[in-house]
């Protein structure tokens, strides 16, 4: 019996090791290398550009997602009520977009994201690996990658939306269909 308890305790301790390792505090050298890497890749600028692109596309995303919900709920509605629901939604979109823009413009948000991202890099890469990455991003192809990343991210986001939103709309319709009936 004692052997079984000891074995279970050892198994539990070993299963918790990866979680503890993730929470381990990176060394000062590792954190410094990660900060250099974040500066070299302009992580803050990339995050800000990504958030701006996301907020710019927010009205279309909200319309696409909410449009499916209105269509599903409109099955029992008169055309006038359906139009009123769409108009009400349309009135809400600018306020929702403005709220999101304000949220994404908060410098404290980017400070926290940058701090956490730096810690993630410091935990997942050795100092030598980060130095190699730094050398890559300072090379011509690395510099090109950094320069084109916002455009690549924007195109990728647009493509993702084109593929994902219609499928999400169907899921939302299926889920909300039961609300109307």
TrEMBL record:
InterPro entries xrefs: DUF2059
Q: PROSITE patterns under this entry?
A: PROKAR_LIPOPROTEIN (PS51257)
Q: Where is the DUF2059 domain?
A: 111-164
Q: Where is the signal peptide?
A: 1-21
Spell out the Pfam families in the cross-references: DUF2059 (PF09832)
Query: What are the UniProt keywords, alphabetically?
Result: Signal
* Protein name in UniProt: DUF2059 domain-containing protein
């Amino acid at each position: 019996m004692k052997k079984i308890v000891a074995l279970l305790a050892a198994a539990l301790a070993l299963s918790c090791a990866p979680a503890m390792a993730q929470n381990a505090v990176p060394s000062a050298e590792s954190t410094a290398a990660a900060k250099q890497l974040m500066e070299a890749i302009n992580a803050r600028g990339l995050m800000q550009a990504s958030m701006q692109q996301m907020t710019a596309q927010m009205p279309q995303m909200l319309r696409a997602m909410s449009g499916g919900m209105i269509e599903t709920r409109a099955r029992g509605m008169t055309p006038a009520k359906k139009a009123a629901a769409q108009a009400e939604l349309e009135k809400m979109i600018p306020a929702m977009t403005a709220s999101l823009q304000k949220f994404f413009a908060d410098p404290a948000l980017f400070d926290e994201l940058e701090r956490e991202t730096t810690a993630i890099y410091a935990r997942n890469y050795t100092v030598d690996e980060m130095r190699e990455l730094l050398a890559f991003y300072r090379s011509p192809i690395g510099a090109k990658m950094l320069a084109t990343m916002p455009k690549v991210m924007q195109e990728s986001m647009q493509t993702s939306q084109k593929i994902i939103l219609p499928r999400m709309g169907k899921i939302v319709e299926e889920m909300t269909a039961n609300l109307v009936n």
